[in-house]
Amino acid sequence: MTIEPVAYEPRRFRTAAAHYLAGRAPYPPALLARVAQITGVTTAHRVMDLGCGPAQLARGFAAYARDVLGVDPEPEMLRLARAEAPANVGFIEASSYDLGPALGRFQLVTIGRAFHWMDRVDTLRRLDALVEPGGAIALFSDTHVELPENAWRQAFRDLINRYAANDASRTQRQGPNWIPHFAVLLDSPFSELEQISVFYRREVTAAMLIDQALSMSSTSRAFIGDRADELVAELTDWFGRIAPTGVASEVIAGIALIARRPDGR
Fold first, then answer.
1. Alpha-carbon radius of gyration of the chain
2. Which CATH architecture has domain 17-264?
3. Quick check: helix, strand or coil at residue 90?
4. CA 129 to chain centroid
5. Which of 54, 107, 226, 233 is paired with 39 by a 20 to 30 Å CA distance?
6. pTM of this structure
7. Each residue's pLDDT tens digit, 253-264
C-alpha cells in the first residue's frame, strides 16, 4: 500500500509551544510505568523521545532509564523542555529525518502525538537500526471515550474543525485514504503490537480549552493568524453557556501502542 507522508513543516508549532503543557492532557504516570515494565526499560537503558515537544514523555521516563534523549525540530518546544528537565535528560534540535547511527542505541523509543507528522515508513526503517534487540517503540495518544459525560466534546471538536478547515495536512490525516498507525507498524520491522490504556477523569476550564486549541498546529496563531482571537472569543462564550460553573468534567483514555520485532529480535 502507498503511504503518503504529510508535508514536512518544522516550524508548525512555533507559537503552539507556549500553550502545549497547559492545553494537552497529561500522560498518566501509571501508563508510563506499565510501558516501562512491558518493554523492559531499566536504569541500564537509554530511551529516546522522538518529537518530544516540551518533554512530557522524556521527563516521565527519566525515572526508569539511565538517560533519555529528546528529539524535536522546534526550538520553542526545546526551550520549554530544557527548563524543567532532570539531569539525565538531554535534547537535540532534529527531526525523524535526521535519525542515524550517531545517536546510539535505545531500548525504547517513545513518540507522543507526533508520529503522523513523520514519514512513518522511513522513520520505522531508521529506528530499526537504533532500537536494541528486544527493544520497542511506543506510540502515545489519548481519546475521549463515548460517555454522556464527554458529550460536550463533540461541540468543541466541531468548533475546532471550522477554524482548521483550510489546513491541508489535517484534511489529509482525517481523510479516507489515511493509513492508521497500527497498519503502518504491521508492515514494518516492528510488527508485534500490543495496546494498553489507562482511564482517568479530570475537570477542565475555558482557559485549558483555549490553550488546547492554540496548542494545535491547525488552530495556532501562526497558522490562522488574527482568526485566533475570534476562536478564543467564540470558545469562551460557548464554554460559559455549557458550563455555567466554569468547570466541565471529562473522561480520558491514555493509550500506548507498543510495537516490537517478532520473536523478541
1. 18
2. 3-Layer(aba) Sandwich (3.40)
3. strand
4. 23
5. 54
6. 0.96
7. 999 999 999 976
